[in-house]
């Protein structure tokens, strides 16, 4: 189990840690019951500071989406706790989760933008709806929707279109704008660029980097270390349901400690680090399975 401490800020002469936006403690998730049940997350602890972007990396089946679902209240937690903005949400029911989302505390972006967007709402309605729910007057909501469209580098002429009338890259940018338009404290992005072609991937990653300045905390989940490395402040490495390494992005990339992280870094040709040759990769895999 690895516990990540949030960044600290100086108050007077004393160092004081800011309250984490997200604090996951000893999280366990099991799918199925009894002997047929299997554990998807074990003893996962992670804190996210205000304004921080944390990348969660892991191979397929390592538990990344389960972690996202547990933090969003979409899957039952078997043990441990999830606190968002200091509030223990572990035992929340559907109504309480709806209330949390209505208050704009936590938002999400999934790999498939059609899962994050209502197919019957125009881009304008998708962007204004969360603001109207919060009680923002219609005129102000429309102005903020336009401003956010600009922040994700989309032209105003798309406002009247339905999601089905947009390209995949445009849709994902609308999904990102919708998640951020209420200026939530926390956004969970589960593989937000995996379904995009390389040009759109680069653009959405650039947009996420620009949005980091807005003060929202981002949890950026991906199987691709290259996508995460340039975007996240810290990287958390999930392996077989456990967090095996958490650290500053440059430390994890340049000085990976866990064997699995070394394999990940060594296999990522897009990183500006030394790629392991085939023999080294085989040796690392042998250590992992040993
Ligand atoms: N609804 C479910 N019922 C049973 N097992 C599940 C369910 N969802 C996920 N699992 C299992 O839990 C483990 C973790 O799955 P999860 O989807 O969290 O992995 P992941 O890291 O997001 O993978 P991927 O990168 O392929 O999306 C896997 O072994 C998966 O088969």
UniProtKB/TrEMBL annotation:
Q: Which InterPro entries match?
A: AAA+_ATPase (IPR003593), ABC_transp_ATP-bind (IPR050319), ABC_transporter-like_ATP-bd (IPR003439), ABC_transporter-like_CS (IPR017871), P-loop_NTPase (IPR027417)
Name the domain of life this protein comes from.
Answer: Bacteria
User: Molecular function terms in GO for this entry?
Assistant: ATP binding
Q: Which CDD domains match?
A: ABC_NikE_OppD_transporters (cd03257)
Segments forming domain ABC transporter: 24-265
Question: Which keywords belong to this entry?
Answer: ATP-binding, Nucleotide-binding, Transport
Protein name according to UniProt: ABC transporter ATP-binding protein
């Amino acid at each position: 189990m690895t516990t990540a401490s949030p960044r600290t800020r100086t108050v007077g002469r004393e160092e004081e840690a800011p309250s984490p936006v997200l604090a996951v403690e000893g999280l366990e998730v099991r799918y199925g019951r009894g002997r047929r049940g299997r554990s998807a997350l074990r003893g996962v602890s992670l804190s996210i500071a205000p304004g921080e972007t944390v990348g969660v990396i892991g191979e397929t089946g390592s538990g990344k989406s389960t972690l996202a679902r547990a933090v969003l209240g979409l899957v039952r937690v078997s043990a441990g706790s999830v606190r968002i903005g200091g509030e223990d949400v572990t035992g929340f029911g559907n109504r309480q989760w709806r209330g949390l989302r209505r208050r704009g505390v936590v938002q999400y972006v999934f790999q498939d933008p059609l899962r994050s967007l209502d197919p019957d709402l125009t881009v304008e309605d998708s962007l204004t709806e969360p603001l109207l729910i919060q009680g923002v007057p219609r005129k102000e909501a429309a102005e903020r929707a336009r401003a956010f469209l600009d922040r994700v580098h989309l032209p105003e002429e798309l406002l009247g279109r339905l999601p089905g009338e947009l390209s995949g890259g445009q849709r994902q940018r609308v999904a990102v704008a919708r998640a951020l338009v209420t200026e939530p404290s926390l956004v969970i992005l589960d593989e937000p660029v995996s379904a995009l072609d390389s040009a759109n991937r680069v653009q959405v990653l650039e947009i996420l980097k620009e949005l980091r300045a807005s003060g929202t905390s981002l949890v950026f989940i991906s199987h691709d270390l290259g996508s995460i490395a340039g975007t996240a402040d810290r990287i958390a490495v999930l392996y077989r349901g456990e967090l095996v390494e958490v650290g500053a992005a440059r430390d994890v990339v340049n000085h990976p400690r866990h064997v699995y992280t070394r394999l990940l870094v060594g296999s990522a040709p897009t990183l500006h680090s030394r790629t392991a040759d085939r023999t080294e990769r085989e040796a690392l895999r042998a250590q992992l399975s040993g």
